[in-house]
Design goal:
Layout lengths: L7 E9 L5 E10 L4 E5 L6 H8 L10 E3 L4 H4 L4 E4 L1 H4 L10 H7 L6 H10 L14 H13 L5 E5 L7 H17 L3 E5 L12 E6 L2 E7 H14 L10 H5 L3 H17 L11 E3 L7 E3 L20
Helix pairs in contact: 5-6, 8-10
The chain binds adenosine-5'-triphosphate.
Length: 310
């Protein structure tokens, strides 16, 4: 990979699984060097598929992906680090092995400054922790350190911070941010957890049913929610009352809005339930029930779609 700035671009990227279901559909993105992009979308929106394609874990059509201006699958994926589920499930991190040894095995001695920095940021006890006898969150912290010691140029992160406590996650996100400020590197991060992310992403990508519905610099994307605040509607378009809105960050409000619209647009998953009864999902889950004769039995206390908060 050339030493130029690590831009990430896709050109009409489409991927269909062997069973003919759509993974991603006609995605064109141009993420600038040193950007920190969040992939946002409901479960099944295509975030993991996109990240795996960018990482070369799935074969993208020739010419549909460029990293630093070149086809990474022709010219090499060196510098691209993908941290996702399969990496997290690696069995070695559950064996009776010390942290120091593990970090050494992934190049800790070659990059001692980065190793020590990550150990400090992720609050890892190098001397005493053995991997078969740590908590899930502690294990995850060691895994993050292992995956990030080698200086990557493009980091593709599929939500793997779920086990971190709020403080550790904030420290970690701060470290990632600093990386993009002091080194030539770029991050694409798929997450549902928006805590401590206000001000973190430089770009947002809104995915739905395998497609990108919108993307761009965060400030541009936020205008949508700024406008809603200006309009000052009761509960806006989220179906939430005012007080509930206030509890969310602006980013949280924007994402709630997107996901609510996406679920409405997608519509019900299935009309048939057990025993011939059909679910009235209204795009928001199967809370209401309709009996065979069409009479609405409903979930206790829930009568209208507005009642089903996401
Ligand atoms: N191996 C597979 N074979 C067929 N279809 C798949 C496969 N993996 C994923 N899909 C489908 O592709 C779509 C996108 O899945 P993907 O895992 O990319 O979503 P996601 O946005 O990462 O979701 P989540 O937020 O739940 O992790 C889904 O509809 C899913 O059912």
């Amino acid at each position: 990979m050339p030493p130029s700035a690590p831009t990430v671009e896709t050109f009409n990227l489409t991927y269909t699984f062997p069973d003919h279901s759509t993974g991603v559909n006609d995605i064109s993105l141009s993420l600038p060097a040193r950007s920190r992009t969040l992939l946002i979308g409901a479960n099944g929106a295509g975030k993991t598929t996109l990240l795996r394609l960018l990482a070369g874990k799935r074969l993208a059509p020739h010419g549909s992906i460029r990293v630093s201006g070149v086809d990474p699958f022709t010219d090499g994926l060196e510098g691209v680090t993908y941290l996702g589920l399969e990496w997290v499930l690696n069995a070695i991190v559950r064996t009776d092995i010390g942290v120091a040894e593990l970090l050494r095995s992934v190049g800790g001695d070659v990059y001692p400054d980065r190793r020590d920095e990550l150990v400090s940021v992720l609050d890892i006890d190098v001397d005493n922790w053995r991997m078969h006898a740590v908590s899930d969150g502690e294990r995850r912290r060691v895994q993050l350190a292992m995956g990030l010691i080698r200086p990557w140029t493009v980091l593709l992160l599929d939500e793997i911070t779920v086990d971190l406590d709020v403080w550790s996650r904030a420290q970690f996100l701060g470290w990632l941010r600093r990386e993009t400020e002091i080194r030539e590197c770029t991050i694409v991060y798929a997450t549902h957890i928006l805590d401590n992310l206000a001000g973190w992403p430089t770009h947002l990508v809104h995915m739905h049913l395998g497609a990108v519905k919108g993307w761009g610099p965060t400030q541009e994307m936020m205008k949508e929610i700024d406008k809603e605040e200006e309009d000052n509607k009761d509960g806006g378009d989220l179906g939430l009352v005012k007080g509930e809105q206030r509890g969310n960050s602006k980013l949280g409000q924007l994402v709630l809005r997107w996901l609510r619209h996406d679920l409405r647009e997608r519509g019900p998953r299935s009309k048939r339930g057990p025993e011939g009864r059909s679910y009235i999902t209204g795009g928001l889950g199967g809370y209401g029930l309709e009996s065979k004769d069409g009479k609405h039995s409903g979930a206790p206390g829930l009568k209208e779609e507005r009642d089903y908060l996401i």
